[in-house]
Design goal:
The complex is a heterodimer of chains A (about 190) and B (about 600).
Chain A (H helix, E strand, L loop, with lengths): L3 E9 L4 H14 L3 E6 L9 E9 L12 E6 L2 H6 L4 E10 L6 H4 L11 H4 L4 E5 L1 H8 L5 H10 L6 H11 L5 H14 L3
Parallel strand pairs in A: 1-4, 4-5, 5-6
Antiparallel strand pairs in A: 1-3, 2-3
Helix pairs in contact in A: 1-6, 1-7, 5-6, 5-8, 6-8
Chain B lengths: L8 E5 H11 L4 E4 L7 H6 L6 E4 L3 H13 L4 E6 H6 L1 H10 L5 E7 L13 H7 L3 E2 L4 H18 L3 E6 H4 L1 E6 L16 H4 L3 H24 L3 E4 L2 E9 L2 H8 L3 E6 L1 E3 L3 H10 L2 E5 L5 H8 L18 H8 L27 H9 L5 E3 L25 H12 L7 E6 H17 L5 E6 L28 H7 L4 E5 L4 H13 L4 E6 L6 H5 L5 E3 L18 E5 L4 H4 L8 E5 L9 H5 L5 E3 L5
Parallel strand pairs in B: 2-3, 2-4, 4-5, 5-7, 6-7, 10-11, 10-13, 14-15, 15-16, 16-18, 17-18
Antiparallel strand pairs in B: 1-8, 6-12, 9-11, 19-22, 20-21
The chains are: A alpha/beta (about 190), B alpha/beta (about 600).
Chain lengths: ~190, ~600
Amino acid sequence: MSVIRNILFSGVGGQGILLASELTAEALLQAGYDVKKSEVHGMAQRGGSVTAQLRYGERVYSPLIDPGTADIQMAFEMMEAVRYLPYLKQDSTVIVNTQKILPPSVATGQAVYPENVLDELSKRDIRVIGVDAFAIAKEAGEVRTANVALVGALSVHLDVEATVFESIIEQRVPQRFLKENMKAFAGGRAAGGE
Amino acid sequence: MTARAQNNSTWMSGNEAIALGAYEAGVVVASGYPGTPSTEIMEYLSTYDTVYTEWAPNEKVGLEVAIGASFAGGRALATMKHVGLNVAADPLFTASYTGGRAGIVVLTADDPDMHSSQNEQDNRNYALAAKIPMLEPSDPAEAKEFLKRAFELGEELDSPVLLRITTRIAHVKGVVQRGEVAAPTDKPEIEKHPEKFVMLPAMARRRRVVVEERMMRCKEIAETADFNVIEDGDSTRGFITSGVSYLYVKEAFPEAAVLKLGMCWPLPEKKIRDFAASVEELYVVEELDPFLETQIKAMGIDCHGKDLIPAIGELNTAVVKKSIDPQRAPKDLYEPVELPPRPPNMCAGCPHRGIFFTLSRMKKVFVSGDIGCYTLGFLPPLNALDSTVCMGASIPMAHGMVKALGEGAHDRVVSVIGDSTFVHSGITGLINSVYNGSAATLIILDNRITAMTGQQPNPSSGSTIRGEAAQELDLEALCRACGVKHVRLLDPHDVPECRKVIKEEVERDEMSVIIAQAPCVLLPDMKLRKPVSYYTNIDNCVGCTSCIRLGCPAISWTVFEEGEAEARGYKKSQKGYSRIDEVLCNDCGQCASLCKFNAITRGEPTR
């Protein structure tokens, strides 16, 4: 069977995960891959932990990533980067937005946000690449471009030309924020390497 | 390289593909009620000008609209989530007798694993019970094709057809081919066919026979139709499968012989027998109920099924491998790390929060809840919802509780229901409560929209699916017309007022309705305004945690380190202070209405 690569997107409802996974899928399609993506809508989206699962290769059947098979995780929040650990492959890469969003139990003082939570990944031989997407987005002039900055960071790890991503971003984002989105994408690419 | 490179190829979700299929099939009328995972079908379909689309108040109405359209001669589609078909079951079972004049396709979107549902019923059982054909696609491309084929099949057999999808088809995106748009058919026109449209007993008895004959014919079609395909392969293990489970089988056992059933009812008995005879060991792989397995075993064919494969929840490739050949399953998985959970929560600024905060303080009251965003009022720190069963159940259940509790129980039970759910199936419950002398207070959480499924308009919103103006249902007048003498409007963001009004009405020994009115913060109008943010004056905060107990995502608690309170000039006993995240704040002011220490202030407009 042909090689299938799996990208798991994780984060908190409302962070723009669906758009980020959409841009990535479009780029992979243009690069000639068969792509399937699975998401969950409805109740889970209300500020809860959310994922989008993207699989690509020559021929993709299942829309779901099996435990232990994610090659790359694109995490939009630090604790969410760790939550889906059982899905990750042994030598996988996690690109993580170094942002904390407090879940209700932490915000109300009932629980504590785990300290140095990303150590849970690095101590298991998972390659962790931290990206301060908020800072990149701010630098780009629009804080709402953080998800595009993360796509930039992810794009470094995919076998797709940056220009493919750029042309998709051009088509998909509102024209009045195009400059900011392009800057955020470039900033993300610069930050997404080793 | 891939299909994508070919002409007419696109990439879309199953729901988007079904909408495209309906457009290409020349559907004339489509009606449905929002419900995850089916909602987006009708939304996408409403973007095609040639198809009349609407949101119905509930699934029964939606299907009846479709039947009417078919009786007039137009192809019709009704869409719903799995539990919606329970509501629409009444027309479905008799439409099976009547058929129509043009195809009626009923789309049911099941939700294995209950991502956004209260149960995980397997709606394939409806096809068997209602005696109608059912198609089950495996991916978005097939979903579109099968929808079109469902119309052809239904018209050939004069039968409604069920198209069953699941979450992993509805919300999966894949490559889909655009097709030909059907040539326009005759303009719908009235024709009277009482022998099949009027189901009086005498006529229904004759149609009953027609139904049996039709299903016999459909069985013959099932034997030869290309919905049901045998894929040759290694016969050591042979698989019979359908829907998304087929994809998991293909990945788990790519070498094996497979009988893929695209038509899951009625079943092609001869084809199944031939396939079973051609393999050494037969495995039936299906999500949820042993629907195929039971039928195959009833044919006297020995097979594996639910003895190995879970009947609960979703399958995936790993589960299929583990159940049948554990050697193939992924090994050495990382163990999960214990983390604070992140359940869904009501949004910052959600108008429901003020009501549930108030109810959370009324410990002896049982809150009979319903289906919608407000079901999240169950979660900590509010913990203010005590039951949820199905759409509309909150009101009759509260009535039943009060009757069971007997004399003097009028202040013990409150029901809460959203505007959309009230219109869906709450109104008859209210009429019953008034008619039969209930005294349980009802709170209608009127946020002007069907919010949980993604802001679909409903009769109380004043607009249609296409955003055109529509007659707005007057909930207050409706409640009064039902005979409720005490109807009060309430601003849920004013928490002290909520406390006062709810207390007064709960104590009243007569049926009363409180309509808590404030728009959902996710409505486009609400999102477009630049919300002014509230902020905490940390110097004034005494750490009473009143605002924290709202459970608003924009408010967080900061604990003082040892000695920090005194060092910063607070009382030694103060344990911490609260802080508002100005980016997350949506300007509802509930926290400020609760704060007695002038520690929360509204900022100045920034634009």
